[in-house]
Please model this.
Amino acid sequence: MTIRSIVQIGNVIRNAVMFNVRNWPGGIMNSDSLIQSVQDLFALLEQRNIDYVLVGGIALLHYVEGRNTQDLDLLMAASSLEKLPELKVVSQDMYLVRANYGQLQIDVLFTQNPLFKQVHHKYSKVQPFLDRNIPLATVEGLLLLKLYALPSLYRQGNFARVGIYENDIATLLNYYQPDVPALLSELSRYVNENDLAEIKSVVADIQNRISRFRNGSR
Model:
């Protein structure tokens, strides 16, 4: 099941930014400029032959309805940033860079991380998405990335983001019913035993919720 949304990527991001009260003190962003930044970015990635994969909330729009997000998430090699001087780096750690392109916020996940590299290589596919062909993470790729991030989010005490990620995971599991044991087996190569146990517990809880939902809707 693929959702062929008519919503433009730029409009989704613009609405998320404009309706987030944290952005109000600095003034509401120019919506036309934001949408143009989105269009220009994808054109730039294509022109520079950047080997990237779209992930995160925007990629999720290809598979489910109703997702909102303030930024674009991309998988790419760290060396690709050298081809994109237009991206102004705000913060950086070993596997993640947060950058601005005009008014657009971008999170770049480096494929130097073994799991990110695997998702880029094995769990992505060029697909028609809105008005162009874009390399997108598959359902399995998105699930791997979100499950991988959960233990860290729990340790950070980021309750709001945990809720978003768990909801995304539940929605994908409910709609697409992927091979969960295979995903957990894949994930076991990239996380320690404690984190894997926590991830399995979260997945089991989500699967129980899905089962209750399906039984209740009969």
Q: What stands out?
A: The chain has two domains: 9-137, 142-216.
